[in-house]
Each structure stands twice: as structure tokens, then as C-alpha cells.
């Protein structure tokens, strides 16, 4: 199978990830829940993983690296910690439902920057004006539908200058782009562990500049006599038993990334994107969403077929051994902004392990499926 759905979940991972998960299941207990060896091994595993995350994202205090179950979990913590019901919130036109649905649930009044695809200058001009009248901002770093790299560094500078707190969704950039959380000055940054960080599903990370309000309440392994959650991070936000096997796998994925470097991963994914886009453009029959400037697009390529539905093409590709995703990708706002709400897109998304030969084969299969009788 040719797996081109890494924007949803990384399927192929470094071999040590699988080994680490199995080892944790067989030898680790729960951190903070005992003085015995299995509990100590689990605590050490979690601490080392936090250290690696702090190194990768330039976080000075390892205690401000919080484990979550996924990016959605982290975004809900961040949004409910920072944004009050009815607050005025600035968002990009490329946000995922993991951002828009929590904001809707709070009754937030949204200002949406719906500037064109791959147009960061227009985005920043609109943001400069909109930030004058909002209480907070939430922005994705990379569109999960189109791979559009938003200018979050410049947006963060605008927010700092205007005193507007910022939440970042790093779901599609973590492990792919260099992110300096401390330099950005954002209040929170949330990400999954199972995409670019190459860990298992059921893992996620929330980086916290300051304190945060718990979303879940329960056992934390510390301050057990108190009726409230601990005041200190990360315990304050990590109620219940940790996903220790997942964290062990995530730690092994981070080893691979720290050794290889995010720049190398990004280069590989952008080369695969350019190769497939060039091959598909030669075949015709597809409208490709491609930036003229490669630096504005990550390893995600969306397309709309001319003569069949996106769902039909996605299903046919799957039957022919190519795994893609078709539809709205849990991001209807992005499709509204891009004008693809009626059709959705077929999304090809790459990984550090995608190869040129896979791109050639994918293009051949697309040509066969799109060939008119």
C-alpha cells in the first residue's frame, strides 16, 4: 500500500517506536503511583519525553510541557483557560473543527480572516486591523487541507505588540517546521503526537506559557489529600492514568526527529509534493491547489477531479492501493475560505518515508482512474 494520509495519522514510524510501546506495556506501571520499579520506569519515561519535547520546541521549563490525548484535548484546555463565554476571538479562515467547535460552544464572537490561499501578506494586513478589537486569537500553523503555512511568527509579533493572547494549533507543523515556543510568546500551543511527531495515536502535547485551568479532574499522583487539582504544572492538567505506552512510543519518535532534524523531514515532504504535483499536472483532469512559492506549503496537496466526485476518486484510489483522504477533512471553514465546500478535496499528504517511486505509481493509478472512456 502507498500511504498518503499522514496529515490524518502517521502510519509508518521508525522501528524503535513500535519496540518502545511494547516494552512499556510489558515493564511500566503508572508514574507517581508507587515506589516500585515499574512506576519509577514509567515516571522516568514520561520525564525524558518531556525533556525531548522541551528541546524540540525550545521550552525552558519542562514542567510546562503537558501530555494530552490528542491536539483536540489540548486545544480545549487552552481555549477554555483563556477565552470566556462571549469573548471576541480572531481566527484564520483555515481552522479545524478542533478550534471552531469549542469556540462555538463558548458562544465566542468570531472574526475570521478569510484571505486567499497562499497569501500571507494579505493575511497579516487583515490581522493587523482585526487585532484592534478582539480579546484573543487562535490560529493554525498549517492548514490540514491545503498545506498552507500561515505566517504565525509575524502574527505572534502582532499579538505581542497589541497585547492579544494567542493560541497556536501545531497539528500539521509539529515535527515538520521549526517552532520556537518561547520566542513566539504564545499562551498555548497544542499538537498531536501521532502525526509529524511519529508517535502512537492517543498522544498529544500542550505547551503552556502560564497556568491553565483543568479540563478534567481526578487523580494526579500528587497532592492526593487536596479536594482540588494540584496548583502546579503539569499535574494540574494531567488527571487520570497516563498513556504510558503511547508516551514511550512518542519519545522514540522524538529521538528520530531530533537526530534527523525537522529541516530534513520538511525537505523530503516538499520534494514528494513537487514530484506528485508535477506528474498529476501532466496528466490533467485534476485541479491542484499548489503554491507558487514552495516555502508557503508543507507536505499536503489537495486536488479536485473534474469529472468525478472527490469521494469516488478517493474510494477508487483506496481500492487500487493508495491511501488518501477525501471530503471536508474536519475543516469546513477552510473549504468555505477556499471555495471548495461543495466538492471537498482529495488530499495527498506525505511523510518522511514517502518515496519518489510511490509518487510515480500514484500518478499512474490516477491517470488510469481519470481516463475518459
Question: Which labels suit this protein?
Answer:
373 residues, alpha/beta, Aspartate Aminotransferase, domain 1, Aspartate Aminotransferase, domain 2, 7-stranded mixed beta sheet, 4-stranded antiparallel beta sheet
Tell me, rounded to a whole number, the average pLDDT: 96
Structural class given helices, strands, pairing? Answer: alpha/beta
What's the total number of strands?
13
End-to-end separation: 27 Å
Name of the top-level CATH class of the largest domain: Alpha Beta
Q: Give Rg in angstroms.
A: 21 Å
Low-pLDDT sequence parts: none
Indicate how many domains the architecture comprises: 2
Helix content: 40-55%
* β-strand amount: 5-15%
Arrangement of strands in the largest sheet: 2-8-7-6-5-3-4
Oligomerization: single chain
Polypeptide structure, described:
With 373 residues, the protein is of the alpha/beta class. The chain has helices at 15-27, 37-56, 71-82, 97-105, 120-130, 152-162, 181-184, 244-260, 262-283, 310-319, 332-338, 356-370, and strands at 2-3, 65-68, 88-92, 109-113, 136-140, 166-169, 188-192, 204-208, 286-289, 300-305, 322-323, 325-327, 345-349. It folds into two domains: 2-10 and 261-370, Aspartate Aminotransferase, domain 1 (Alpha-Beta Complex); 15-260, Aspartate Aminotransferase, domain 2, CATH 3.40.640.10. The radius of gyration is 21 Å and the shape is globular.
